[in-house]
Amino acid sequence: MCIFSLALGPGEEPITFVGKTTRKIMPARGPNDFGWDPVFQPDGFEQT
């Protein structure tokens, strides 16, 4: 799950965006370029 909130200025109500995906946690594989990407395999995919 990823949650991001943005307020467009002082006194403005924040806008919140939520992203969610189902996945498996796998042994790390592939390039180790970005955070936790090497250990998450989205459902329906064969790669992390």
Automatic annotation (TrEMBL):
Pfam assignment, any one: Ham1p_like
Signal sequence residues: none
Highest rank taxon of the organism: Eukaryota
Gene Ontology terms, MF aspect: nucleoside triphosphate diphosphatase activity
Region annotated Disordered, chain positions: 29-48
GO biological process: nucleoside triphosphate catabolic process
InterPro entries linked to this entry: ITPase-like_fam, RdgB/HAM1
UniProt keyword terms in alphabetical order: Hydrolase
Family: Belongs to the HAM1 NTPase family.
Name by which UniProt lists this protein: Inosine triphosphate pyrophosphatase
Species of origin: Zea mays (Maize)
